[in-house]
Amino acid sequence: xxxxxxxxxxxxxxxxxxxxxxxxxxxxxxxxxxxxxxxxxxxxxxxxxxxxxxxxxxxxxxxxxxxxxxxxxxxxxxxxxxxxxxxxxxxxxxxxxxxxxxxxxxxxxxxxxxxxxxxxxxxxxxxxxxxxxxxxxxxxxxxxxxxxxxxxxxxxxxxxxxxxxxxxxxxxxxxxxxxxxxxxxxxxxxxxxxxxxxxxxxxxxxxxxxxxxxxxxxxxxxxxxxxxxxxxxxxxxxxxxxxxxxxxxxxxxxxxxxxxxxxxxxxxxxxxxxxxxxxxxxx
Length: 283
Known about the structure:
Layout: E1 2-10, H1 17-26, E2 30-39, E3 50-52, H2 55-66, E4 76-79, H3 85-101, E5 106-109, E6 114-115, E7 119-120, H4 126-137, E8 140-141, H5 145-152, H6 159-170, E9 176-182, E10 191-198, E11 201-208, H7 218-233, H8 236-257, H9 269-272, E12 280-282
Parallel strand pairs: 1-2, 1-4, 4-5, 5-8, 8-9
Antiparallel strand pairs: 2-3, 6-7, 9-10, 10-11, 11-12
Helix pairs in contact: 1-7, 2-3, 5-6, 7-8
Protein name: pyridoxal kinase
Keywords: ATP-binding, Kinase, Nucleotide-binding, Transferase
GO molecular function, one term: kinase activity
């Protein structure tokens, strides 16, 4: 299996491609990473060094890969944080090239826009690009609850509302929606939910809420894990169960160590054989 992953990258820590690539490789996937930025560390530290690449730089690397004649072997494109609208355009152009070479290839878009604590944190124009172009082009989207609200324009305070919001996003184009973190009036205070929808059906996975310090990159990892399991099984429910168990194992080990960075390498066995699994329930 080959996946083209176009995301940000950091030298220290695990966000963007630095969070998504290794879990996929540990699962036996040949990943072709293209970095949209090259930073020393994620920006949550308040200080960092490095470069942001532009759309033409991404297009140049994609073209070089295409010239190797391998795009027909690419099973999926995965995208995450888009630093600027022209990078988003370059990513969508890459998706079109891959689909032209392999019509069965999937596009998984992690629509990174913001979160409940920070609000919108992407540059101007990114939210519109996500809503108008990236999400409609995707087969799979993996928003958090804040992004689900924004993309759908609907509330998600109840499970029924969350399902309606996911269906509204599906109506834009994606056949699969994975809500990577969800808290409704039905979610106990000591738990967190994930919700997957496909073909008019929905499934929920509930895991214990962890005492985590502020960590970044979990959404990048879970999008990658879900994509690989979906490619292998063709089942959103199965992919939800496996990805949810793995990400919980990663976060649990990170919490137990009191780390402010994901312990992606230390917890690598969780990606192939989660130590704890949780029931997936139809809702």
